Hints:
Elements: H1 2-6, E1 13-19, E2 22-30, H2 32-35, H3 39-50, E3 61-62, H4 68-73, H5 76-83, E4 88-92, H6 95-99, H7 105-122, E5 127-132, H8 140-157, E6 164-168, H9 186-210
Parallel strand pairs: 2-3, 2-4, 4-5, 5-6
Antiparallel strand pairs: 1-2
Helix pairs in contact: 3-9, 5-7, 7-8
Amino acid sequence: MLHTEIIGIIAALVLPLLVQGAKLRYMPFGDSITDYECWRAWIGLHSKTNCSSLDWDRDHEGHPGYQAADIVAQNQLVDWLKQNPADIVTMHLGTNDICQVSRKTPAIVAALGTLIDQMRASNPAMRIIMAQIIPLPAVAKAVQELNAAIPALAASKNSTASPIWLVDQWTNFTAADLKDGIHPSASGDVKMADGFYPALVQAIKSLKAAA
């Protein structure tokens, strides 16, 4: 796959907010919904509106077709974070676990929990923004089951040193917000950005407060 070939040059996004003299680094992490789609650009636009000197680029760790369980099994996130350390991660994962292999909710939740542990092993003060995933009409029940389980996972993993923000990307996401039954349309991109951005601001503020 393309991303496995160019992984060495993928970097986390850089926000020009200093914490003890170092820039904060933000990594969007996920599958094709993170890779292909424009919600990241909308977050960049929101950010530049509020910070004209922002150094925002398009780099990310969105990998088409990737499953949360496979990323864990192959230890991929560990390597990505070694190459490109991050202070803040947004994670939207689980779509391919459901639509490709019909993986059950407990296995997906276990994988997501391991990914959180790996983020913290890389950075004990990691700020984690975790999404309940957008709808998949073809497998709606499975998505609902996963999304119903994610809040308990986030709560159980939340900590003062490495807080987790839960973002609901499922509620109020309609068929019109999907362009192909899987990926967000233009309106869906706006909704995803509007969901992630407030949590990103809170994560940045919490890092500044802890500095």
